[in-house]
Amino acid sequence: MIVRKSPAELEKMRRSGLLVWRILGELRGMAVEGATTLDLEHAAEKMIADAGARPAFKGYYVPAAGGKYPYVLCTSVNNEIVHGMPSAKRMLKQGDIVSIDTGVQLDGYFGDSATTVAIGEVSEETKRLMKVTEEALELAIQQARAGNRLFDICGTVENHVVSHGFSIVREFVGHGIGAKLHEEPQVPNYVDRRQENPRLKEGMVLAIEPMVNAGGPESKVLPDRWTAVTKDGKNSAHFEHCVAITSNGPWVLTRP
Length: 256
Prior knowledge:
This protein is α+β, with helices and mostly antiparallel strands and 256 residues long. 28% of the residues lie in helices and 27% in strands.
């Protein structure tokens, strides 16, 4: 069942979203050569606690992994697609990219967002990968309008990515969000004819999150049971925003 939010609930989600936006802004500045992904984790955990919020990811049970996720961030470096775990041993270096994904619960409602950051100078292909992924998200946001259908969002991401020679990760998708971190509907970054194609209505909130690979779409999960990587070892980029469908068009809750 898709849960539509009232204006009061959307305002609460807005506060969660802006907290996530502030955290990611701080972490973007910290993601430099020589920093470790655990440095980012400690900073994020303090900011969440100082804001009186609860981390969305830490302690979240995932059946496929057989346990609860142990960190407030997912920090996925280079060919890691999603769910990379912060580590004191993972030092960022020139030419890396790192996807930073986090969420919070504030006043009972969730915010969730991700960005990919370049460490120093990166290759032209990697710059283009990040640009196309972020463009796909922005184009998809414009489709999040009452009267459109879910596949308008999914197809927009797929068409933009494929037209630029990159590939869509198929095993991991976006989602509805609200009083729960993951709600209906699932939001694939491609048109999946096996799933329903609901009409978008005011009050729906979607976490739209293109995950795009420089090479093939295939992925695998490492023995840590969390970190998903590209099978061919090529880089992957990830951007995400929470978007409310309103009478005035899309409202991105996770940025000012």
